[in-house]
Write a structure and sequence with these properties.
This protein has about 325 residues and is an alpha+beta fold. The chain has six helices and five strands, in the order αααααββαβββ. β1 and β2 form a beta hairpin.
Length: about 325
């Protein structure tokens, strides 16, 4: 308020001085004019002080203005920085908003993967159980193998002992044999060499069926007579059997007839019908009488085996 009052007074004085100068008529005395001038001088001094005060105040205000301008610049820089950050955050927000659209899809994938994980965990548990079982089996097998190896080692040892024992026996046997060796050049030891192949007459023959071989092939019938050591006459029977008649009792148990039947079975075509072919050997009292009344000495049954395609021989 002091500053404003002084400024008002100064303005009033200046107006009065101007007015006084305009109305100067030279009639006032010099002292009055001097007094008035001194008064004006004082007023001017006061105004100068007020002006100096105002200049100082204006200078302070200008400093405050410059300070505020600096603050404004700082705030403007801060605003620019925050605006850039805002734009960056806006871009990130837009990106996240776009990604949020995929959240249901990603959740579905997570659910599917979790289901697969559960399935694989179940399979893993099953495989682990199987592995444990196999490990037990493996350990058992290893134990059995070690036991078997022990038995093998023991058997090898016993085998070696047996070989040594056999070698000793062979040595003793050879010694005994050489001591009691027979001189085969001595005529007293000469023996007849029997025929090495009783089936030589029919070697190489093949028949369409065992029935044809025994019932129709005269070579086979003649050989049967030799093996039975009596004349043989073959004849058909009923229900898939064949009778071989002889006057004397046939010889059937020396193994040669067995070999003949095996040869015929192997060298005849396989016939599935009839399923069985029966060969009977019987002695009759007279061919002129009833041939079926004679005694049956034995025979063979040839059964057709569909699985192997061969005949199975049964002797009776």
């Amino acid at each position: 308020m002091g500053v404003i009052s002084n400024l008002v007074v100064a303005a009033s004085v200046t107006s009065a001085l101007t007015v006084g100068a305009l109305i100067w008529n030279g009639s006032e005395n010099l002292s009055a004019v001097k007094g008035y001038a001194e008064s004006m001088k004082e007023k001017v001094g006061n105004l100068a002080g007020d002006i100096s005060f105002l200049n100082s105040t204006v200078s302070g205000k200008n400093g405050q203005i410059d300070h505020q301008k600096g603050r404004i610049g700082e705030l403007e820089n801060t605003i620019a920085t925050l605006t850039a950050e805002k734009e960056t955050l806006q871009l990130e927000l837009e990106k996240l908003t776009a990604e949020n659209v995929r959240i249901p899809e990603l959740e579905a994938q997570i659910t599917s993967l979790q289901a697969k994980i559960t399935e694989l965990e179940t399979q893993t548990a099953t495989l682990q159980s199987q592995l444990t079982s196999l490990q037990v089996d493996y350990d058992t097998a290893i134990a059995e193998l070690e036991k078997a190896n022990g038995e093998i080692a023991k058997a090898n040892q016993e085998s070696q002992e047996l070989k040594e024992y056999i070698a000793t026996l062979e040595a003793e046997t050879n010694s005994t044999y050489n001591t009691a060796k027979v001189d085969k050049t001595n005529p007293m030891y000469a023996v007849e060499t029997p025929s090495s192949d009783p089936l030589a007459p029919i070697r190489g023959l093949h028949w369409s069926s065992p029935h044809i071989a025994i019932n129709s092939d005269q070579t086979v019938i003649a050989l049967m007579g030799e093996l039975m050591q009596t004349d043989a006459v073959a004849g058909d029977g009923d229900y898939g059997w064949i009778d071989t008649y002889t006057i004397e009792a046939p010889v059937l148990n020396d193994g040669k007839m067995d070999a003949l039947m095996e040869y015929i079975a192997k060298n005849s075509d396989f016939v599935a019908d009839p399923l069985e072919i029966i060969f009977r050997f019987r002695k009759v009292y007279s061919f002129e009488g009833d041939p079926y009344g004679g005694h049956i000495y034995g025979g063979y049954i040839l059964r057709a085996d569909h699985i192997t395609g061969q005949y199975v021989i049964e002797k009776f």
